[in-house]
Design goal:
The structure holds 2 protein chains of 2 kinds. By secondary structure, chain A is of the alpha/beta class. Chain A folds into 2 domains: 139 residues, 2-enoyl-CoA Hydratase, Chain A, domain 1 (Alpha-Beta Complex); 201 residues, 2-enoyl-CoA Hydratase, Chain A, domain 1. Chain A has 12 helices and 15 strands. In chain A, the strands form 2 sheets. In chain A, strands 8, 9, 10, 11, 12, 13, 14 and 15 form an 8-stranded mixed β-sheet that branches. Chain A has a 7-stranded mixed β-sheet with strand order 1-2-3-4-5-6-7, with helices on both faces. In chain A, a hairpin with a 2-residue loop joins β9 and β10. Chain A is elongated, with a radius of gyration of 21 Å. The mean pLDDT of chain B is 91. Chain B is built from 22 helices and 19 strands. The two termini of chain B are 51 Å apart. Chain B is 38% helix and 18% strand. Chain B has 3 domains: 242 residues, 2-enoyl-CoA Hydratase, Chain A, domain 1 (Alpha-Beta Complex); 191 residues, 2-enoyl-CoA Hydratase, Chain A, domain 1 (Alpha-Beta Complex); 37 residues, no CATH class. Classes of the chains: A alpha/beta, B alpha/beta. At the A-B interface, α11, β15 and α12 of A face α1 and α4 of B.
Chain lengths: 352, 525
């Protein structure tokens, strides 16, 4: 990375002049402030990166950023840290380095990154400067209270979401409403939208099925993407919000293994999970997305929703969430116009 | 309704109707009957418990179904238990409140599931749990036959297991506001604060029908487990309240002294009562003559913030007072001998009472203040048959294992091994101060002289002159000033400065606290 590019990158990421720990032809290392977070940053330029600096300084911070810019040859085997690692790839790297970098908690890839990394990246951007802006936006979103809530917006949900459960809606529009436009999408797969957002000032990692794509059916790639997001929630110590409107699972090879990994991820997650059934919650897809059986912290639903082993017959009241609520199969059935208030109410239990 | 072709108006109308049905509980007639017995509904109780407008109900739409052969099935709104959370003085508290307007408040399987969910949530989120119990034994219609094997969570073993895990981690409260015989009576002892309403609240293994069926004995609920039994005889109830409102007011006061969990320190409330306030009245309240009685509650009221204290088990083991209060805004647990009842002697009931109180204080990091004026342990055949030694030993095990700031003020008498256990050096007291009126010794001078001169007295060789000389010597040696000169106690203070002395030193001894408090102990039943 050219010096001028680096200066611009630092300006975009940090609010003030960073503390420089090292600046040579081989690397740049320093600590800066991004939102409420202290961020350690390392930019290797040539040779083996100075991992000992990362090992020593990064644990004092909240987040580590590794920027791989230009053609780097080497393993890029960053040390394991107790804080989340963001890898920004802006150039060709060796296959071995690519494999290592994919293990970062968040992978940001520019157009210059090799294709496999671009395909696996959590955040895609045109260039390194857009990458810095994305990281800054993401850190702002996960910082409690950094986004002004717009509680009145939830009143619009009845216009965004049709009462008829057979009518799909765009979950992105719903997320923008619930999260006061703070939602930052991470790479999803197929019918699963993943990212981070704030609900009434409470940061959450979000998994939302997208009913507008194949009825929100969950496939193998969705499961693995969800596992990755759950891991990130654990590392960032953030609660998870799940929004379900799914007609079930796809029919793909490898589905049992993928679902097993997803169920294990829920079981090992040590953070609150609020699951909201917004529409259809069908069979194994309901369970796999933190539904009944995985013991989410809260299982709430809109009155349009139903939960069933498979697609129920029209008028089958057994599938209605109103029936599930009678047996305490869901904790609450709520008016959609109080959705963000209800979700943030549940999250308050952990925060206060 | 077919929810596939419904409109939002249809769906929200159905939801509002379901909410309304559930909120109506057993109906106006049943509510009227409950009110006629001087009781409140579950929802009215929760309104009193929580700060206005803060209650968030969970499981409102849950519904039980009572099916008895030969009768039409009957729906039970909310399955007769209202659950959720709200705020008490701004802090989150979970609650489980039985609904006495239907099925006598007996808990069904779904209601049990709701209660279990709330217990689990309270534990995981580390907030207090309040149980307002009505007739919370298992509902016969739901649990007769082998169904019982899978219904543990409803009211019995599963609930007790969850509460046992919570013991000492989150403050837990059980209030009998109805016939809480059976399962609830096994849950209550593992909670931290046990209350009952006078005339309407009952605890016991089995109520009148069970006693009649099992023993062929006719007994009233009052005789089996009324307020008189549990406030005075067994000490099972920490407080008896006149009615539902008073009971809930007590719960709010109790929670005000405790942290939300063992992972926090107790709540500080900025005092309006000056810490330098003089206690000139104390020398009027406490007679200088050690043989004259007085009410130690007057002493406590004079010392603590705003004269406010909250007594635990006020009718049981009355020779010892245990209460919560605040000093300079910090909650403290006060243990004081009560000279107006049996001279404030330490006996079997006092041992049991102080043991549980100290355990609660230790679990929730509440500093201890001992106010000593006691002649020692109760002795004699009756005391031994009551197993006094083991009761005191249980307390001893507790007090030797606490990790708390401890301050002790010796008001007058401090005699025997009991002196050490009630805030003496061996328990790790951070501060021991005495009033000039205090006397510290292995025994009172009369007992000491009589023991030492027993042989001489029996042989007729003891002169009154020698007896008086020995007595005067022991009296002089027992004086607080002498103990202070030998640094066996830390200070002798003017009684009028007691409040200031305690408030200022409490700030210093609180420095013992760790930065991250955590679990200390479970609390014995």
């Amino acid at each position: 990375m050219l010096r001028q590019e680096l200066v611009q990158f630092l300006d975009q990421l940090f609010q003030q002049e960073p503390l420089v720990l090292g600046d040579s032809d081989d690397y740049w290392a320093g600590i800066g402030v991004c939102g409420a977070y202290q961020v350690f940053m390392l930019v290797p330029r040539s040779g083996e990166p100075p991992w000992e600096i990362m090992r020593g300084a990064a644990p004092q911070c909240d987040l580590a950023v590794l920027v791989v810019s230009g053609d780097i040859d080497g393993t890029m085997q960053a040390p394991h840290l107790d804080i989340p690692l963001v890898a920004v790839i802006d150039g060709e790297v060796s296959a071995r380095a690519a494999t290592s970098l994919r293990h970062a908690d968040i992978v940001v890839a520019t157009q210059k990154a090799p294709k496999p990394l671009r395909e696996a990246a959590d955040l895609m951007c045109d260039d390194i400067h857009e990458g810095a802006a994305l990281i800054a936006r993401f850190t702002k979103t996960i910082q409690p209270g950094s986004v002004s809530p717009t509680p009145a917006a939830q009143n619009n949900i009845l216009e965004i979401v049709p009462a008829d459960v057979e009518q799909p809606f765009d979950v992105h529009v719903l997320l923008d409403t619930l999260c006061a436009k703070s939602f930052v999408a991470l790479k999803g797969a197929g019918a699963l939208v993943l990212g981070a957002g704030q609900v009434n000032g409470n940061p959450v990692m979000i998994l939302a099925s997208q009913p507008a794509i194949d009825g929100g059916r969950i496939g193998v790639e969705d499961c693995y993407a969800a596992v990755r997001l759950i891991g990130l929630a654990q590392r960032l110590r953030l609660p998870v919000l799940v929004i379900q409107d799914t007609a079930g699972m796809t029919s793909e090879d490898g589905l049992p293994e993928a679902v097993e990994k997803l169920l294990k991820a829920w079981a090992t997650l040590d953070m609150p999970v609020v699951t909201m059934v917004a529409g259809r919650a069908c069979g194994l897809a309901h369970v796999a997305l933190a539904g009944a059986g995985t013991r989410p912290t809260a299982l709430i639903a809109w009155p349009r929703a139903w939960i069933s082993l498979d697609d129920p017959q029209a008028g089958d009241k057994r599938a209605s969430v109103m029936t599930a609520a009678k047996g305490f199969g869901v904790n609450e059935v709520i008016d959609p116009r109080v959705t963000s208030d209800t979700i943030s109410g549940w999250l308050t239990l952990w925060r206060d | 309704m077919d929810n596939r072709v419904a409109t939002w108006d249809d769906l929200l109308g159905e939801l509002a109707q379901a909410h309304s049905t559930s909120q109506a509980l057993g109906g106006a007639e049943a509510i009227g009957r409950l009110h006629g017995r001087g009781k409140l509904t579950a929802r009215e109780r929760l309104e009193l418990l929580f700060d206005p407008g803060t209650f968030h109900e969970i499981g409102l739409l849950a519904e039980g179904l009572i099916s008895v052969s030969g009768r039409a099935p009957r729906a039970v709104p909310a399955d007769a238990v209202v659950t959720g959370w709200g705020r008490v003085d701004g802090r989150i508290v979970f609650a489980i409140a039985d609904d006495g307007t239907i099925a006598a408040g007996a808990r069904g399987v779904i209601g049990g599931r709701k209660a279990g969910f709330i217990r689990s949530l309270a534990q995981r989120t580390r907030h207090p749990l309040v149980q307002l119990l009505e007739a919370s034994a298992g509902r016969m219609q739901d649990m007769m036959g082998s169904q019982f094997a899978g219904a543990a969570g409803a009211s019995g073993g599963g609930a007790s297991a969850g509460l046992t895990w919570a013991s000492g981690r989150i403050p837990t409260v059980s209030a009998a506001m109805g016939f809480s015989f059976g399962g609830p009576s096994f849950q209550a002892p593992v909670t931290d604060f046990i209350l009952m309403t006078r005339e309407t609240g009952f605890w016991g293994v089995g109520g009148p029908p069970v006693v009649r069926g099992g023993l062929g004995l006719e007994a009233t609920p009052e005789e089996i487990g009324g307020a008189e039994v549990h406030s005075k005889k067994t000490g099972f109830a920490d407080r008896v309240a006149a009615d539902d409102s008073a009971c809930i007011a007590d719960i709010r006061r109790f929670l005000g002294y405790l942290p939300s969990s063992c992972y926090k320190y107790p709540p500080y409330v900025a005092p309006t009562d000056p810490i330098v306030r003089k206690n000139e009245r104390l020398i009027e309240i406490v007679p200088f003559d050690h043989r004259k009685a007085y009410d130690v509650l007057d002493v406590i009221a004079e010392i603590v913030d705003d004269g406010e204290y909250f007594e635990m088990k006020p009718e049981y083991g009355r020779n010892i007072v245990t209460c919560f209060a605040r000093l300079g805004g910090h909650p403290v647990g006060v243990i004081a001998n009560q000279p107006k009842v049996n001279g404030g002697i330490n006996d079997v009931r006092a041992g049991a009472k102080t043991n549980r109180f100290v355990q609660i204080c230790d679990a929730y990091h509440i500093p201890l203040l001992f106010l000593q004026d006691q002649p020692g342990f109760m002795v004699g055949p009756k005391a031994e048959r009551e197993d006094t030694v083991r009761a005191i030993a249980r307390y001893q095990n507790t007090i030797f294992s606490v990790d708390l700031p401890i301050m002790t003020i010796i008001l007058r008498k401090a005699y025997g091994y009991s002196y050490w256990l009630l805030g003496g050096k061996p328990v790790g007291a951070d501060l021991i101060a005495a009033w000039p009126s205090a006397a510290i010794s292995l025994a009172g001078p009369e007992v000491g002289v009589n023991t030492i001169l027993e042989r001489e007295a029996k042989s007729g060789q003891m002169s009154e002159e020698r007896r008086q000389a020995l007595y005067a010597g022991y009296r002089e040696d027992s004086k607080a000033l002498k103990a202070a000169r030998g640094f066996r106690i830390d200070d002798v203070i003017n009684p009028a400065d007691t409040r200031r002395y305690l408030c200022e030193n409490l700030e210093i001894v609180l420095a013992k606290r760790r930065s991250n408090p955590g679990p200390r102990r479970q609390i014995d039943a």
